[in-house]
Amino acid sequence: xxxxLVAASATIADNTKVGEFCIIGNNARIGDxxxxxxxxxxxxxxxxxxxxxxxxxxxxxxxxxxxxxxAVTKDQxxxxxxxxxxxxxxxxVIVYRGCSIGEKVLIADLxxxxxxxxxxxxxxxxxxxxIENFCTVGRYVKxxxxxxxxxxxxVEDRCFIAPCVAxxxxxxxxxxxxxxxxxxxxxxxxxxxxxxxxTLLPGVEIGADALVAAGALVTKxxxxxxxxxxxxxxxxxxxxxxxxxENQGWQE
Length: 252
What we know:
Elements: E1 5-6, E2 11-12, E3 17-18, E4 23-24, E5 29-30, E6 35-36, E7 41-42, E8 47-48, E9 53-54, E10 59-62, E11 82-83, E12 88-89, E13 94-96, E14 99-101, E15 106-107, E16 112-113, E17 117-119, E18 124-125, E19 130-131, E20 136-137, E21 142-143, E22 148-149, E23 154-155, E24 160-161, E25 166-167, E26 187-188, E27 193-194, E28 199-200, E29 205-206, E30 211-212, E31 217-218, E32 226-229, E33 234-238
Parallel strand pairs: 1-4, 2-5, 3-6, 4-7, 5-8, 6-9, 7-10, 8-11, 9-12, 10-13, 11-14, 12-15, 13-16, 14-17, 15-18, 16-19, 17-20, 18-21, 19-22, 20-23, 21-24, 23-26, 24-27, 25-28, 26-29, 27-30, 28-31, 30-32
Antiparallel strand pairs: 32-33
């Protein structure tokens, strides 16, 4: 006898395997050929495409929490979480309600993807990555281990963010009412790359095909196709043309 609890209104397509001690909520829909690990929780209304793998102890469609003094999280009605076809979602991952995950996305173990977030096709979200609310992540993006993407950020297609990169959205660091007028995440234009342990301050824009060196502190916008380095980061030289995204021969 199955030890999993599946709501009567949930739909599970043929050839899908559900592990032990899972909970599948009301009106959840799981596509064909999926593999659901043990102790997985799939909340109400979640839509999961065909051939999706979800590993042990992962939670899909979690409702957001709101602290009494939260400056960003608001009470709201959120659409159901949607997971595209052929995705792989690791163990101990939390994907909140109001998320849209494209096709062939990998979300590695211990990652968190907040509400009001979209992640494009073929993107890799590395181990321990945190994507905060109101973020947009494009197609073919790589977020390496322990990246922190602050709320209200935008990452366009083909960007690369190395391990332990940190971003921020509040220049007032939680003090004075003035901060509420200026919350702004970071923007990374198409093909931009960020080196390991770099820090991006609120509102900065990294231009298309720009490169931020490891350990840099980015305090102002970075021009397209330029390399910046240092604390604070300054223009070092041009990105070599053979490294430009347009010269890689990749299909979009």
